[in-house]
Every structure is written in structure tokens, then in C-alpha cells.
Amino acid sequence: MEQRYATNPTQIPGMTTGDLRATFLIPELFVPGEIRVTYTHHDRIVLGGAVPAGTDLVLPGYPEIRSEYFLEHRELGIINVGGPGTVTADGETYELETGACLYLGRGIRDVVFADAPAGAEAGAQFYLFSAPAHTTYPTALVAPGQGTVRELGDQVTSNRRTLNQYIHENGVQSCQIVMGVTQLHPGSMWNTMPAHTHDRRTECYLYFDVPADARVIHLLGEREETRHLVVADRQAIISPSWSLHSGVGTAAYSFVWAMAGENQAFDDMDAAPITDLK
């Protein structure tokens, strides 16, 4: 388990590109045959990837979280951004097609990731987002497109997008996690505009469906001290509560957004208009 320590906005002016990438970018989550996780001290989130690649992967308990098993004191949101696969939780197997979301609550001891039975064209790639939990909510599986769907933006401003809320206050119940997937329409590149902050939650983005010859320019920092990161397919960003976040791609793409913190109100955000940014 890699650890990333908490940051504050006064660090931004002195950071090099390398510093920014080492602090906020997680470049390699999906490694065949492995589970890779990163612990950020911002809201004590753990995010990572599990790629079975033909073998069963067991989610361990890590010494960094001082738990006998991973979900002893945590909850977990899982979204499959690869081919079909399965997640087995305490003996119950759930089939996750591409884009499906599974919520696992506190207290589940055994979690196993696997590919779908033989015949699937591509292997599963499970994105993991976990936060501390104070109680237990039921396991819930949501098929792609079956969450709360919101159509946002406009083609004129290049941010026409379909947002699917899976884990949220009016959907799958959790202690802290708010999680879903946004897909940009062809010809749109901005994932949210204006940019925004929410000083009550940490948000993490996983960019995927980014073409091999394309990149996303992710904005971060404070309104008067912005920076950017160049992000490739299946790379993740940690966005602290004090940092704005927005991004523009050289082609349309998708991203998983996930948050944990003070509340679960999706619309609790403070806009940062483009005219205010420097």
C-alpha cells in the first residue's frame, strides 16, 4: 500500500511538475495479476485497481490500516472499467459487466476479484474506492445506466455529458462514499465547467476511455494559483478539499468520480468561474 500524505495550498507555488505528479497523480493502478492500492491521508481514502488477468485476487488486510481484514472498519465502492468479471463477497458472487458498480459495506471479511467465465473478450479491471465507515449498509449491485442519470452541459460549450450517480444519498446507501461515472458526448472535452471546490470532501477522478494518442489536462490548485497535470488513460487524480478540479481532453473520454468527507450532497460545491482563475 503506497501512502500519500496530506497537502495544503501553500505548497503549490513551489512545486515542480514532478512534485505535482508525485503528490496528486496515481499513474499505474491497473497491473495484470495484481491489486494495487494507494492510501491518501486526505479523508483517509484508499483507491486502487484489481486486474485478475486469469487468476483470483484476494483483497488483503493491509498493515497500514491496522485491520485484520480490509473492510473491518471500511466500506468499498467498486466500478468495473474493463471486461466482464465477478466479485465474491463472503461467499456471494456478483457479476459485474463493464460499467457496473458494486457497494460492499463494513464487516465483509472475504473479497475475491475474478474474470468472467471463459469466453469474455477482455479481462475485468476493477477500480476501488474506500473510506472509513461507522456502520454497515447492505451490499448493492447496480448495472451500468441503472443509477440516477443526469444529462448536463451543452455541446456549444464542449461539455455535453451523461452523469450516472450510483452511490449517493438518493441511491445506494453508504456511510461516506459518493460515486458514479460520467461519459462525455462525442465532440465534448470539458468534464465540468466552471471548475469547483467543495471544502468539505476529497474527490478522486479516474480517467478512462481516453484514446491512446489523447490526454486530459486536469486543473488543480486554488483559484489564483492554478496548476495542471497531463493525464493518460486509466490514471487517477487525488483532489484535496481545498483544490479546484476540472479537466479538458484532446478527445472525448469517461471518468469515475468518487468522494468522501463531511456530507453526501452531490450539489454541495463552490463554483470557480473561469473568469476568476489565474
UniProtKB/TrEMBL annotation:
Keyword annotations from UniProtKB, A to Z: Isomerase, Metal-binding, Zinc
Residues annotated as binding Zn(2+): 196, 198, 203, 245
Cofactor(s) needed by this chain: Zn(2+)
Enzyme class: isomerase
GO MF assignments: 4-deoxy-L-threo-5-hexosulose-uronate ketol-isomerase activity; zinc ion binding
Record's cofactor remark: Binds 1 zinc ion per subunit.
A Pfam family annotated for this UniProt entry: KduI
Example GO BP: D-galacturonate catabolic process
Catalytic activity entry: 5-dehydro-4-deoxy-D-glucuronate = 3-deoxy-D-glycero-2,5-hexodiulosonate
Domain of life according to the entry: Bacteria
CDD domains: cupin_KduI_C, cupin_KduI_N
The protein's Enzyme Commission number: 5.3.1.17
Chain's role: Catalyzes the isomerization of 5-dehydro-4-deoxy-D-glucuronate to 3-deoxy-D-glycero-2,5-hexodiulosonate.
Protein name per UniProt: 4-deoxy-L-threo-5-hexosulose-uronate ketol-isomerase
Organism, scientific name: Cryobacterium arcticum
